[in-house]
Specification:
By secondary structure, the protein is α/β, with parallel strands linked by helices. Strands 1, 2, 3, 4, 5, 6, 7, 8 and 9 form a nine-stranded mixed sheet that branches.
Length: 208
């Protein structure tokens, strides 16, 4: 066996061992699920005044994304071994779907920044509309000991049916532990960071 093939085999064995450790025994029916959410949305220290330029009223539609983000499963990916396969933790779940949690957190952060956040049902003619698509929302592993919560979205602002601007945002936060709890905490922090980026982007856009 060549040295190259031996190293490949060792990497695969390590990846399989990590996946088994992370996922746990999927057949353990008696093991209760641990449920995670984003935690309380405390007002950021820098949010004492509304950013200049932020629209007074804003319709925020429900965040959309892949069907995998419309379930309570917590996904992780071993980028160092098989970056094309998304796995899920066996006995850990979100309290609700990531799409719902991201929607609510973005609305909360915009309201904390000073915007009046409206739903599509409450909107009146002429109110700006913010639409967000989630591209990535996953706990990614660079190696067996190093991981991060990765969140990537595309935000679009409309005035009526006219696109004002569109921008992509991506944030990663190192996970303190290589498990579902560490991933959930890192994903919550990355979501808050993306929300802050969206607020800054909206405030920098030209007024209506």
């Amino acid at each position: 066996m060549t040295v190259h093939k031996h190293l490949q085999r060792l990497m695969m064995v390590a990846a399989l061992a990590t996946a088994a450790q992370l996922a746990g025994c999927a057949s353990s029916k008696g093991t209760p699920n641990t449920t995670y959410d984003f935690g309380p949305a405390r007002v950021p220290a820098a949010a004492s005044a509304a950013p200049a330029g932020l629209r007074n009223s804003l319709v925020v539609t429900d965040v959309t994304g892949s069907a995998s983000y419309d379930s309570e499963r917590i996904f992780y990916r071993l980028n160092y071994a098989d970056p094309l396969q998304a796995r899920s933790y066996a006995n850990s779940r979100w309290s609700t779907t990531p799409l719902q949690m991201v929607t609510q957190r973005f609305k909360t952060r915009l309201a904390q920044a000073g915007a009046k956040v409206l739903s599509t049902a409450d909107a009146s003619t002429g109110v700006s509309i913010l639409r967000v698509d989630v591209d990535d929302f996953i706990h990614t592993f660079t190696n067996a000991a190093q991981s991060e919560g990765e969140v990537a979205v595309r935000a679009s602002l409309f005035e009526g049916h006219v696109l004002v601007d569109q921008k992509s945002f991506r944030r990663t936060t190192p996970a303190a532990t290589a498990d579902a709890g560490g991933g959930a905490t890192a994903l919550a922090a990355s979501t808050d960071a993306v929300a802050a980026d969206i607020v800054a982007w909206l405030a920098a856009l030209p007024p209506r």
